[in-house]
Amino acid sequence: MTTELTADEIRTLLKLEPNATCGFVRLTFLSKQAIAAGGLPAPFADGRPLGSALYFMVTPGAPVRLHRIRNDQLYHYYLGDPLELFLLHSDGTTDRVVVGPDIRSGQRVQLLIPGNTFHTARLIGRRSWFLGASTEWPGVVPADVEIGNLDELAGKYPAVAAELRAIAASVQYVTPTKVIR
Description:
There is one protein chain. The protein is mainly beta and about 180 residues long. Helix content is about 15%, strand content about 40%. It is built from 3 helices and 13 strands, in the order αβββββββββββββαα. The chain has helices spanning about 5-15, 150-155, 160-170, and strands spanning about 15-20, 25-30, 35, 50, 50-60, 65-70, 70-80, 85-90, 95-100, 110-115, 120-125, 130-135, 145. A hairpin with a 5-residue loop joins strand 8 and strand 9. Helix 2 (about 150-155) runs antiparallel to helix 3 (about 160-170). The longest helix is centred in the last third of the chain and has 9 residues, at about 160-170. The chain starts with 6 loop residues before the first helix and ends in a 12-residue tail after the last helix.
């Protein structure tokens, strides 16, 4: 049945909205329990929810835009095409990882993205959409999200500069400037 679903149907059924970083998103969980101010080291010292989770959908015109989150996050594959991620580590190294269903070929159904890791992603495959989730701990608040400077990061990571620029150029949807978290 999943091959019969379209991106528009999924966006409607799951109530996904355009997002500044991750295609289309809906926050599905924000812990009611919180870590008190001072309970964590900087940059989380002002307190945070214990965790958060969201659905996200990526399409050819709505990729994962270049950004980082202070928090550790775990991507989960649910349906659709594989997602090719580019991770830009603070030590100057990069990783290319595919999140998708073909675990025999090395794709992952989960991927840990360490906090403060700039990343971007695009679809590979034929269905033209990826549906996944991200869980984060501590929970994300808007101050935890930073949009990456394409020129600066392409200069720092020349081995993947062409991919960073191609993904940025593929953005077709006007997304809100406010990060939905």
